[in-house]
Amino acid sequence: MIEVIYPENNDLRFRSFSSTILHSGNKIWIDAVNPNKEELKLLQDNFEIDSLVIDNLNILRKRPVLKVMNNCVFLIAYGLSYSEGKLKHYDISFVLGKRFLITIHKEPINSFQQLKKESLRVTRAISGGVSHLLHTLLDVEVDIYIGEIEKLFQELNKIEDVIIKNPKEPVVSNVTADYV
Question: What is the DSSP string of 83-102?
Fold first, then answer.
């Protein structure tokens, strides 16, 4: 699914992907959740994105990536979530042009969904330039990182308390099975 987000009359608009919106001259944020090959091709063609960028979207990485291309900047960063005793990271790809920011990710991102509800904040960010919007999205994601790591530390403290109070071998083996 591709969603186009842009400010209009001091409000935030959400539309499906359409070339008329793209050529309106507005600064826009395109949020693509689990795009298929056709949708990626549509983005590539409409924004003249280098095919190397599209090819890089499906490569699993262990480190962030930053590439400056002909007409855009390509960035891969990582989000983090912790729930039910599992720490999970996910890729977030960004393609930054002069008047657009494309975000591409496999699943909806909670921080992005929350930010979309903050119309004034997103409108101000886009009005400041799409690079400002990129900074805002990364800043929100870093805040999430800190919160998720704090949840992990709380869980580790609970495990530590159990081990110190009752250092039985089954507890230790359960911990190593779940967290190693």
Answer: ETTEEEEEEEEEEE-SSEEE
Q: What is the pLDDT of residues 130-162, one digit of tens each?
A: 999 999 999 998 888 888 788 888 888 887 887
Inter-residue contact 96 to 134 (CB < 8 Å): yes
State how far the alpha carbon of 170 is from the alpha carbons of 45, 76, 173, in Å.
57, 40, 5
Q: How far is CA 4 from CA 22, 51, 68, 165, 180, in A?
A: 9, 21, 23, 54, 41
Gap between the terminal Cα atoms of the chain = 35
pLDDT digits (tens, 9 = 90+) for 155-174: 888 878 877 887 665 655 55
pTM here is 0.80
